[in-house]
């Protein structure tokens, strides 16, 4: 192609303007469908994306800290213990934990244990008839200590292998019923929860600004009357999970205290308040009776009058409460607003696609509409040849 012609066609390309042709179809049915689709998409954008999902806001997730203090006393008068008063320093183990606390509700206590030799418990499967049944030095996860190799009398008619262990061994196998510390139902817990949404530089705590020191001394959380009091009665927490405190106290369990902060920071800060819910987190299925509840052992050590190291072993049953804080805050921002509106406008094109499909494939007069919508053009070379023949 000569250079001059090439230059001309480039000039034509630069200086020409093309635009898609719009076909206006005057069909009431299709027009109605088009408007309906547009209406549905518009309601979706305004109702769901912008209003319900707050598509005009930027969101930040929560950062929080939790401080817990339990109070209450329980008076126990049992045959094994005699009279004893328990306060929070006795039944909260350990005294401080991160976002959780354990309240002992039942226990098996073995006092005055010292290191020495004693017969193994028959329940541990070390029954014997002679020393040859007991392997000296054997350590088994189910034994209470190290086997000495001797077979000794446990009680009349029963012989077991001797062990080097903390003696006397813990012999009580069944937990006390009713629970020794069933009075824990009336204990109260103060939960101090400080939260922050770093992106918006917004901080708040669950002891709300309108709560006074005197109110805090007396209030107890109640879902309808005192929904923002940060002091909870343990019995009320367990009741809201659908369980009975005295049943749970026997063998223990795990309860979740969920604190939800969903804050709309376009509104007043006083509307950003916590919502509390409670859930049983361990398996509560009564049919699954293998290894239910929650227990562990710990000991208190001291020296007896003879100067020998002695301990009191406690198998503690109780309820572990886990505090979980979650939530998010939203605030108006122009960028998410533009993205939500832009994607909504793009969706409006769906109406055209749908109506095109109806017109071109489903309607009786689809061939007529096809002819009107598309302009059919022959291959350029063939078009020229045909013109020459004429
Ligand atoms: N578990 C709880 N049940 C009921 N009230 C509580 C509990 N924990 C704390 N409080 C009360 O809430 C207020 C604030 O408690 P905070 O622990 O901040 O202060 P405190 O002076 O160290 O409390 P205290 O010495 O009474 O334990 C105090 O009046 C306190 O008595």
Automatic annotation (TrEMBL):
One of its GO terms (biological process) is calcium ion transmembrane transport. Disulfide bonds join 118-167, 128-151, 134-161, 219-229, 263-272. Keywords: ATP-binding, Cell membrane, Disulfide bond, Glycoprotein, Ion channel, Ion transport, Ligand-gated ion channel, Lysosome, Membrane, Nucleotide-binding, Receptor, Transmembrane, Transmembrane helix, Transport. It catalyses: K(+)(in) = K(+)(out); Ca(2+)(in) = Ca(2+)(out); Na(+)(in) = Na(+)(out). It is found in: Cell membrane; Lysosome membrane; Membrane. One of its GO terms (cellular component) is lysosomal membrane. It holds the Pfam family P2X_receptor. InterPro entries: P2X4_purnocptor, P2X_extracellular_dom_sf, P2X_purnocptor, P2X_receptor, P2X_RECEPTOR_CS. Its main location: membrane. GO terms for molecular function: ATP binding; extracellularly ATP-gated monoatomic cation channel activity; purinergic nucleotide receptor activity. Glycans are attached at residue 186. It is a multi-pass membrane protein. The chain crosses the membrane at residues 32-52, 341-363. Gene3D superfamilies: atp-gated p2x4 ion channel, atp-gated p2x4 ion channel domain. ATP binds at residues 69-71, 188, 295-297, 315. Functional P2XRs are organized as homomeric and heteromeric trimers. PANTHER family: P2X PURINOCEPTOR, P2X PURINOCEPTOR 4. Belongs to the P2X receptor family. ATP-gated nonselective transmembrane cation channel permeable to potassium, sodium and calcium. CTP, but not GTP or UTP, functions as a weak affinity agonist for P2RX4. Activated by extracellularly released ATP, it plays multiple role in immunity and central nervous system physiology. Could also function as an ATP-gated cation channel of lysosomal membranes. Receptor for ATP that acts as a ligand-gated ion channel. This is P2X purinoceptor. It comes from Callorhinchus milii.
